[in-house]
Specification:
nine-stranded mixed β-sheet, 18 helices, two-stranded parallel ribbon, globular, alpha/beta, disordered C terminus, 44% helix
């Protein structure tokens, strides 16, 4: 009997940020920094599971800047890590963790649920950084003329070329079967890798994957509102009511043009000199809730800690919002909040690249991808939104046009093409698992029901963005623990399947379920 080597690809857990409030990016950066610090301390005390420095190697693969035009000879270096600790050669599987819209963490090949799966199945681990993020781009990569090479299609082609090169390096054969994992945008890449390159990837796990591109993602704030009222994660009906009341007061002060009070109360670094500065301020305030809900976890700031502040016995809900803003600024060690629209546009327009400190470089790259492919703009254009109704769609288009020379029609057309190209939230594939938490606002753009016998969905109550990709924690709800067990079991099932076995029962089921998909009504998506 011919032996088979299984290769599993892990695509990066990277929390997605798509609004224009800077606080979202800052909170995400703080969370990532704290997590890296925690893992570093665990490694130093030898408590980090699976950490064996001699088994981890950092390297680089040379990729074409454009996979689809042979006349373009430019290349770039794509960074990746390798961990051989668990690999049962020659037949053991291989997990590749591929970065999303951010720098690849130094422990990307050492921590996370997928590492536990690697140990269970004897897997070799690769961790690969996404093009144009972290160190994986040329020094002039952020210039507009080069950003055209930043796309999900080029990223998938990078995966295909990585498959080719690693096949040569590790002497793999045509029998190799790949399974991809990913979280957030990278979760979408995971599903799309299976759909677009089914001859390379054997199966895919897509965690918190917003596979449906959407211009106006107002349902995001609807899910945030519902999560703030969910008791299982520390929310309450009163918490939501207080948030709504506080932002209603903010909007009234804006209408009265009492901007000096807002500048003082919310510790603005600069005067609110324009309507766009006001927009930046209310977006930053909304970020305190939006990012907290998306990344909710056992450590503050989380839904519980935010709601404790918002439900204090202050004279008004507005005063509680003032207190929350000051609390978050204190946690960050900041004296004021940058509400300058001009500063935000200046940051997005900065094309310089510091290779030793990529920092917020990913903000420009990701906002370009939202303009050119995905949208995902979080607005308060519907009445149910608990935040400021000055958060409208138009300023997002303004960013796309002023920074990236893409007008509103071009943005909308490109987003329509993305859905046409990949299948939106009605993808047709096999051996794909979509995993979502109901607290996570991004579940509203993912797949929440089984599409076929081999295109499945897990929905986990009380969990946030990409929670299933994290290591087990004693504070995890039972449903999350069971979900990880189910994921592991399904991986084992996939690894035992042959291509012919899959095809024998899948075609008929896909046809039967072709039109049986989720309602696009946002109320149903979050209900």
């Amino acid at each position: 009997m011919k032996s088979v080597i299984f290769i599993l690809v892990i695509i990066s857990l990277a929390g997605s940020a798509y609004g224009f409030g800077l606080n979202f990016w800052k909170l995400r950066s703080v969370i990532r920094k704290n997590e890296q610090q925690r893992l570093r301390m665990q490694q130093q005390s030898s408590h980090l599971p699976n950490s064996s420095p001699q088994m981890t190697v950092a390297s680089e693969i040379i990729q074409p800047l454009d996979h689809f035009d042979p006349q373009i000879k430019t290349t770039f270096g794509q960074r990746y890590l390798v961990n051989e600790k668990f690999w049962k050669q020659p037949n053991g599987p291989v997990f590749i963790y591929i970065g999303g819209e951010g720098t690849l963490g130094e422990f990307a090949d050492l921590a996370g649920a997928y590492v536990r799966y690697a140990e269970e199945y004897g897997a070799l681990i690769f961790a690969v950084e996404h093009r144009f993020y972290g160190e994986s781009m040329n020094d002039d990569g952020l210039k507009l003329k080069n950003l055209k090479f930043l796309s999900s299609q080029q990223a998938l082609a990078d995966l295909a070329n990585f498959h080719l090169q690693m096949t040569k390096v590790y002497n793999l054969t045509a029998e190799n079967k790949w399974i991809s994992f990913g979280g957030s945008y990278a979760g979408s890449l995971s599903a799309w890798f299976r759909i677009k390159y089914p001859h390379l990837v054997h199966g895919a796990v897509a965690s918190s994957a917003p596979v449906r591109a959407l211009v106006n993602f107002d349902a995001y704030c609807d899910v945030v509102a519902k999560s703030l009222a969910t008791e299982i994660v520390g929310g309450s009906k009163k918490c939501l009511e207080m948030a709504i009341g506080a932002f209603n007061m903010v909007d009234r002060l804006i209408q009265k043009r009492n901007l000096s009070q807002l500048e003082s109360d919310f510790v603005s670094c600069h005067p609110l000199g324009t309507d766009l500065d006001v927009l930046q301020m209310v977006s930053n305030l909304a970020d305190l809730f939006m990012a907290t809900v998306q990344y909710d976890g056992p450590v503050a700031p989380n839904i519980k800690s935010v709601c404790e502040i918002m439900t204090k016995n202050s004279p008004t809900a507005y005063q509680n919002l003032v207190a929350l803003n000051k609390d978050i600024l204190q946690r960050w060690g900041k004296n004021c909040s940058d509400n300058s629209w001009q500063n935000y546009i200046k940051m997005l327009s900065n094309v310089s690249f510091n290779r030793t400190n990529p920092g917020l470089v990913g903000v420009r790259a990701w906002i370009y991808q939202t303009c050119s492919q995905f949208g995902y703009y979080q607005t308060c254009d519907n009445k149910a939104c608990p935040f400021s109704h000055y958060m409208t769609l138009a300023p997002n288009f303004k960013i796309c046009e002023s920074v990236f020379n893409l007008n509103a029609k071009e943005v909308s057309d490109r987003i329509d093409f993305t859905n046409e190209y990949y299948g939106s939230d009605d993808p047709h594939g096999s051996r794909i698992l979509f995993v979502n938490g109901l607290v996570d606002p991004w579940h509203a753009l993912s797949v929440l029901e089984n599409v076929s016998q081999s295109e499945l969905a897990i929905v986990i109550p009380g969990t946030s963005h990409c929670a299933d990709m994290k290591d087990d924690n004693p504070s995890d709800p039972p449903a999350l623990t069971e979900a990880r067990k189910h994921i592991s079991s399904l991986i084992g099932k996939w690894l035992s399947q042959t291509r012919s076995k899959e095809m024998s029962g899948n075609t008929q089921t896909v046809q039967q379920n072709k039109r049986r998909r989720l309602s696009r009504d946002s109320d149903r998506l979050i209900g």
